[in-house]
Fold this protein.
Amino acid sequence: VADDEQGSPAYDDLLQTLRHRVEERRRAGDYPDGLEGDLDRHFRRVQGMQGTHVTTEQLLGSIESVRGASHFDRSRIEGASRLPGGELAHRAVSKAVGREIDGVLDQLRQFSDSVRGALELLTEAVDDPPRHLHPDLLGILYALDEQVAAIQRRLVLDDDPYRALVARIDELEARIGSRALLPPYSTAALREVIEGDDEERAARAKALADQVQGGDQVLDLRCGRGELLDVLREREVRAEGVESDDELRREASAKGHVVHGGDGTSYLSRLPKASLGAIVADRVVEQLDAAAVIELVVAAAHGLREGGRLVIGTPNPESLDARARFGGLDPSVSAFVHPGYLQFLALQAGFRQVELVRISPVPDDQGLLEIPSELPSADLLNTNVDRLNRVLFAHRDALVVATR
Amino acid sequence: MEVDRLLRTEPHEPTANHLRSVVEGPVLLYIGPIGPSRRIDRLIEAFNILVTHHRPDAQLIVASTGGSASYSRVLLRQLLELNLSNAWLLEAADDGQVVALLERAVLLVTLADADDGDDAEGEADAGTLLSVAFAYGIPAVARGVGALSTLASGAALLLDPDDGIEVAAEAFLEVLTNGRLRAELVERGRRRAVELDLPLAPPRRVEPVTTAPVQAAT
């Protein structure tokens, strides 16, 4: 099968092959002659066995015509004759057997009246379906009536709360809308500034990929341009992404990755329980409020299967360098989230093992320099330099790796 | 039938259990309303060829989400007269049942007409079925009529409107047994789902139907 996805020539070729194969089977006698026609005729026959339906209108019309014909009277007996003297003979016979004829007509009238009464009763029953003596149909009708009534009741009763809810949502939407961040720059452009050059991003993606090594069905939340997805694909790990920014999502999709739009936690919560091997949320939690961080970790616990990993990457608040580098640089960052809290949260959400991994070390040449050892009090001063370096220039990022 | 709603629905356990313990062999699935324009009769005819000549172990499940009761009766009679004991007509399937069926199906199928006017609903239903196939990563075979040609081109195996039921049966057989084609249809389907902004079910392992085709006695 060829790789042309846009048009259908690839499958056109395949279909052509299938058609040839059908011809060959016909020639070889595998398919009997006229197989399709036989099956079609069979279906038409089955369809024809449905029988004709008599409508209520037809039945009523038929009963009405019976009613019109049930008028019995001696005067309606034809006495005319084309034979000479025939009419006279008819009259004589009629007179001779008049009593018997009247008797027969009386019996017919009685019978007709009874039949007409029965037909009228039947007409009434047909005209008024609930009067049919079909308990099963009545049962269905009553059940449907009950359902309709229940729906109507619910609509009436729930009307006010429903309206109140809609009004409340409108109000909240208006508030959120008025506070929405509508910058003149794209998220993609800002991420370039924050996350550094291609090399830096690739190194970070590899560090993240190392943490999900061995897993499969990885979901990368806020996957950006798909750098992690690239690495995972190279390592033959099945992975998909979620990205709310359209521009970034398009870029990742253009590289052939499956990337879902919208919010990562919402997407996660729609997935069946224990359906993923790993979830990566890098540079996500610091953009969420406290409730959303909890929702994310709980949803991840739900979505991961036994042994699956949640990897949360976030700027390390224990590093003043990280604070200087990232603090205020991204206006969507609401607050640094301490990895200690994330470890605690993951354990409380049901993860059985949680580790903290520090990545992105500050280059040595950017830290405070040690004093030459020959100077007085060098040891003491260098101990203090070391302590300061650990506070000022600790690793810039922390990874919380939680195993389900 | 909405993809989003199906993804939020847990499978109906009795149906899932029945499928696990009773239904063996590859399952071909149709989901949607049933009525004359959906041409379930043609689907049954193509399935009849598939099981009679190629895969006697194949199963067809027609899960109706509404439609004509009298047409259902005709279909049941058709199944009975063709002696297709491995075809199952499930009337008024709810979301839970549909999800259970989707988890078991290896191929989604429809041969609905969709040319114009009266058949517009048939086309829409077939479009929904294909969307479900893409979202759930299940290969699909359909007739390439109307807007379906655009919706599913390259992401599902679309038969020409003039192709008969023998070609349809051959297409079913090909997708069931050609592992590479199945994997490709799944991958393309999932990509199309993303392009269409459809939510996706978690990827499931894509496998060819490993049982070797069995030549039935004819």
User: Anything to note?
Assistant: Residues 115-119 of chain B have pLDDT under 50 and may be disordered. The radius of gyration of chain B is 16 Å. Chain B touches chain A through 49 residues (CB under 8 Å). The longest helix of chain B spans residues 120-136.
